[in-house]
Amino acid sequence: MGQFFKQYLEPIKLNDVHVDWKLMDLSYLMEGDYLRHLANIVSNAKPVYGTDIVLKAYNIGGDVRILYRDQEDFERITRRFGIFYELKDGIPRTKYKVTVIMAMVMNPPMMKTGYEEPLEELHRIRITLSSKSVKNLEKVCANHVSGAKSKLLKLTGPYVSTQLSNCLHRANDYYFRCKWTLLQVQS
Question: Cofactor note, please (predicted)?
Answer without folding.
Answer: The cofactor is mostly bound to the substrate.
